[in-house]
Amino acid sequence: MLRAPEGATRARHLDPAGDPFHRAGGHPLRPRGAARPRPQAGRRRAAADRQPLPGPALRAQARRCRRHRTRGGPAGAPIVNRYLDLLYGPEAAPAAGTGREAGLPEQLQALDPEFATRADPLFATRPLYNPYEHRWGDRRAEITDFAVFAAGETYPQQVRARTRVDCYVRYRLHAPVVRPIFGITLKTKEGLTVYGTNSEMAGMGDALAAGDGVVACSFELNCAPGDYFLSFGIASRDGNGEVVPHDRRYDSVHLCVESSDAFLGITDLKAELQVL
Predict the structure, then answer these.
(1) Architecture of the CATH domain 100-258
(2) Domain chopping of the chain, boundaries
(3) What is the pTM of this model?
(4) In a 10 Å sphere around its CB, with 0-12 CB exposed, 13-18 middle and 19+ buried, how is residue 91 labelled?
(5) What is the pLDDT tens value at each position of the chain, 276 positions in all?
(6) Helix, strand counts (H, E) of the chain
């Protein structure tokens, strides 16, 4: 640890772009009792001579520091970087939905390269859309598009039982939403729920909180032949823990399942029978 020599004390000066004890053109130590030098024109005054800056002025100063930082600085710059991160938050990649298309799966990228960034809602124009869907919510968040793939087909008119289905849903946040929850449900045409899950149950945490984006859901369609409907929803919880629906699109996507192996009921449990 460095110690100041006798008769000297450290100057209370913080150079926003460098070492906190660095002073260009001078020594970081000032003899005890020596008169404080007058600040040069265009230079910031020592911290001990300044009154606390109001919020807007502090933010303006931090912005100037940040501009200096982008041009490079002395070895002490990490200290200032940490200060700016505390003030503004770390500089990060663009929010979700602003340039995510580079990370889309190949099949979705080939179908629609702008799926993750398009502002216009195309949900109701896609094949398999059910115009008799039941939709409600305050629309602070909105489900705007979807894509379905199965056995190499896009928006398949029929899906063979036990086929793997990949579903992608585009959502947009029009207002701040704390920890949005995305859900998906598969129902029979009679309204019986076959399966359902959501991002909260799946332990995804704040994965949807960054902003607009795409949710991917993949499942094996182990169902009896017949007509089924997918429902999507995005919601959140208020301060009392109550669910607040923002956009729920129930029975909005129609799936027709073809027979695979014969069985009874609505779902194939893949039972194995043998004589012992």
Answers:
(1) Distorted Sandwich (2.70)
(2) 8-33+43-88, 100-258
(3) 0.62
(4) exposed
(5) 445 445 444 433 333 333 333 334 444 444 455 555 554 454 444 444 444 444 555 455 545 544 444 444 444 445 545 554 554 444 433 333 433 444 789 999 999 999 999 989 999 999 999 999 999 999 999 999 999 999 999 999 999 999 999 999 999 999 888 889 999 999 999 999 999 999 999 998 888 877 789 999 999 999 999 999 999 999 999 888 899 999 999 999 999 999 877 888 888 888 889 999
(6) 3, 12
